[in-house]
Design brief:
six-stranded parallel β-sheet, 2 domains, about 55% helix, Rossmann fold, three-stranded mixed β-sheet
Length: about 300
């Protein structure tokens, strides 16, 4: 059960962060929130579904740390995490011995290890805990959470994770969660691309795409992408979700890791280039299911 005497700081109220923070507020945790755009934090604190009595706005990440027992961050990229944690007005500057710091962003494992070392330097404990499940999983509290960091810190964080997710796995020391997330993003990207190819091929051959998804979902080809992104594909609704530019960033992390470890990842490299093409054409802000549009364009066929 959640310990609602624990005050949680939440930094980063974007597409993923806002519903995650709202779930924590509904579970009874008092929140101190911060966002790069202050207006978004103020809107969150006063919005329906979040009790304003348990959500207050802090001016800086340092202030968030000073006023809370646990700090959670959900940020776009590695440089954002470094800035929020390590700047003069960052989380580490306000952290103290015994505090728990949880970064749920998708970043490079090396940055996660840097944050962990900085936290240890002030007597705090850090976890890297990136998630999978998209905005739907964030809203419904059914995210998959991949955790790296000390065992004791993981057990302390478990009640919080249970509010946010359904599948919660401790994978090892600092950085292990981010390595798992890179692997997750490889599989998701390649699956979206494969489903897109199948939809365009079937449609151009005269087979109803909706019926194709139905029959594929019942066999070995079934996957969560076809379930969660079904409407996006069929209605060409590519409002994010999870933006192409962020998935491209994640595949960059995966490819750099693969190069360092000399691992052969050809399919990942191909999909990375497809995402790069979509970004270059101005589609980086669309949902990653918009990979379909690239297959459609090159096939001269819209499903």
């Amino acid at each position: 059960m959640p310990d609602t005497d624990t005050k949680i700081g939440f930094i980063g109220l974007g597409i993923m962060g806002a519903p995650m923070a709202a779930n924590l507020a509904r579970a009874g945790y008092p929140l101190v929130v911060n966002n790069r755009t202050r207006a978004k934090a103020e809107q969150f604190a006063s919005s329906e579904g979040t009790d304003a009595a348990v959500a207050v706005v802090a001016d800086t990440p340092k202030e968030v740390a000073e006023r809370t027992d646990v700090v959670i961050t959900m940020l776009p990229d590695s440089p954002d995490v470094e800035q929020v944690y390590l700047a003069d007005d960052g989380v580490i500057a306000g952290a103290r011995a015994g505090q728990l710091l949880i970064d749920m962003s998708s970043i490079a494992a090396s940055v996660a290890r840097t944050v962990s070392e900085a936290a240890s330097g002030v007597g705090a404990a850090a976890l890297d805990a990136p998630v999978s499940g998209g905005d739907v999983g964030a809203r419904d509290g059914i995210l998959s959470i991949m955790v790296g960091g000390p065992d004791e810190a993981f057990e302390r964080a478990r009640p919080i994770f249970e509010v946010l997710g359904k599948t919660i796995v401790h994978l090892g020391e600092a950085g292990a969660g981010q390595t798992a997330k890179a692997c997750n993003q490889m599989v998701v990207a390649i699956t979206i691309e494969a489903v897109s190819e199948a939809l365009v091929l079937a449609s151009k051959a005269g087979v109803d795409p909706a019926r194709l998804l139905e029959v594929l979902s019942g066999g070995l080809a079934g996957n969560r992408v076809m379930e969660v992104k079904r409407r996006n594909f069929l209605e060409h609704d590519f409002g994010p979700g999870f933006r192409i530019e962020l998935h491209h960033k994640d595949l960059g992390i995966a490819l750099r890791t693969a190069r360092e470890l000399e691992v052969f990842v050809p399919a990942t490299a191909i999909v990375d280039q497809m995402l790069a093409a979509l970004r270059a054409s101005g589609s980086g802000g669309l949902d990653h299911s918009a990979l379909l549009t690239l297959i459609e364009r090159e096939s001269s066929h819209r499903i």
